[in-house]
Request: fold
Amino acid sequence: MRILVATTQVPFVGGGAEMLALKLCDAFRSAGHEAETVAIPFKWYPPEKILDHMLACRLLDLTESAGTRVDLLVGLKFPAYLIPHPNKVLWILHQHRAAYELWDHPLGDLIHAANGAHLRDAIWSADRQIIPEAKAVFALSRNVAARLSKFCGIDATPLYAPVPDADKFHCAPAEDYLFYPSRLSRVKRQGLVLEALSRCRGGVRVRFAGAPEKPSYAEELEALAERLGVRERVQWLGTVTEEEKRELYAGSVGVVFPPVDEDYGYVTLEAMLSAKPVITCADSGGPLEFVLHEENGLIAEPTPDGLAAALDYVWENRTRAQRWGEAGRAHHQSMNITWPEVVRKLLS
Amino acid sequence: MKLNWFSPLPPAQTDIASYTARLLPALAARAEVTLWTDASEWDAELEKYAEVRRYDPECLAWADLNRGDMCIYHVGNNALFHGAIWQTSRRHPGVVVLHDTSLQHLFAGLFLQQLNDSARYFSAMERYHGVTGRVEAEQVFNGLANDLDYLGKHYPLTSLGIADALGVVVHTEGGLSLLKRGGNGPPAAYIPLPFGDEHGRARRSESGGASETGDARYRLIVFGHIGSNRGLESVFDALASLPARNRFRLDVYGRIWNENYLRAKIYACGIDQLVTLHGFVPDEDLNAALAAAHLAINLRFPSMGEASGSQLRLWSWALPSLVTALDWYATLPADAVAFVRPDHDVEDLQKHLNAFLSDPASFAQMGERGRQTLEKHHAPGKYVDDLLEVVAAAQRFRPRAALYQLAERAGECMSAWSDSVPGAEACARAAEFIDSLGFRSRLTAKGSASRGKPLS
Reply:
């Protein structure tokens, strides 16, 4: 089959979703198909631009390429999943979150636009009408599927994505740091981690890896660390290579991952592959599908005190942390999250 | 249901402020209401029913509006009261309640006086009324022709008042028919202007209605904003040449557009002993005057097409009334008012005054039928029910409104590709194109209110 994987990309901003699209193509090829990605550039401001991009996607014709039929279109991200195709399967990584669960949320931006309600309703309407065009609808996680059901009344089957290069993750003796790999962003709540650090009993240290979504946010976080008196206990590593990231996982005591209502969260699975316990929060979304409290990590209340208690616990109970890490690795293996399984389900 | 309600509020001297105050108890019983005002003061009584918030149209907390289910904008023909409301309605569209269908005074006042933006005003005249509209407006404002009332009649700018609206409510059937209708516009409905009968009926029944004054004279009353279209000069002429004129006293309440001129006219007619100009008085005083009156004169010539809150107030006191046989007034039940033809006004006024003297009881029955009409068609609870239906339809229309704005942007973009395709045509074709993608057929089915038809 000739398969196109349609996704969305913010130019110069890369992350797990972009990697997932590439790996999915690789997996299709490994299964004997011809596959390519089509990435639609996306800009969500001023808010009217969101509809412009939706229309642009609807105007695209990906039924053929150079006179040869495209047999299957796999749509991943908003608004690329709106691209029409007679044989379309969706594996929805997320919808436009500011129109849904982040609408009236401190992290939401659309609600502050004069025409925000108009645009939200137009996005809802398009999603409700067009997503069901697909022959099958999968969601990256139970969390994403639940949102589709709650807001759009659409049933989607959760389908977990394998971690890229999963076999390269390993475990090494723990050094004196917790690891938090993610882009620096309000939705990832590095600020909450800093607040928690300031309330920890012991000398918990955290290494943050990842580029800032906006340069100003990195400066804001550094100023916050200074103000809270935890500057000496944090390290800002910026962008690291995949290999460096795996080493940082391997040498950590555990992994901190307390985002707001994460769609999925590769970080959780990467930590498990590295046999490290995961500290997440009760409102973190995707990680909660994998982290079992006091079995392979800790689920803390999303407050500085709640998270501080969890950080202290892992920091002070290294043997238990190691045992939870190993339990996490076993849990991951038991779930059969592999590319052949993903390909089988998408083509079924 | 959370409603954001943009309206003049008491003590603003406009009947639309009174309308909001009258409607609020019934509205608050069905919805959570926030009243928004750009005025610095308001009647604290309103806060029994709703939160009152001040706003600046240039600096609004949009999230607070977005958290509501719908904004209701009350648009009338006075820039002082409605300029900021209309400006907000353009940025955050909602349901527009049109209190006047001719909005020329609103936009002339807003653009030319408040915003000092004549280019925008003349551009709007051209967009909505063609080159002729622009040229006539330029002539008026250069002092070369006619006046603003003329422009209001021929170039009402109604469409600009409801531009981008998600729903439109008018208070007259004529208003609904004036709106250009088609298949793609927002829901629109005619809902009779509401008026509670909370005090009038009780007081009138307690007193048994007004009785003839001790010296066998009957009290006539005119009240409201006394502009040049209230026909007072004709009333004076009618009284002046009426043989039984001394059996009447005329009380005029409300702000008067040109008091010196009217006083001169009164003297010239020799009726200065019969007529009293009271000016603006507190509500309690006006109620007392209405309770004591025998016959009301409520003329509009020309009419701006609006429904008259004053007329409903007269009916709430079961007062018989003489009205102009024009626009909304001409649609009133013939047994609940007596009509005055615009081109035979003095003749008709005298005919009715003589008839009143001959048979005041039949006029009292006319007033009672007016009160019954009020109860039947203008109850606030029914008004709120109908309004909430329009709100629900407007909510369903909102996604489509966003798409038509998208069509405009697409049309503008496409018009740049070829100098042979005008922007408006490109916009229209883009809208059709969006419809052809399937949005329209899926959304139109629920896109109209129960009363009236969609606008184009």
Summary: Residues 205-209, 438-456 of chain B have pLDDT under 50 and may be disordered.
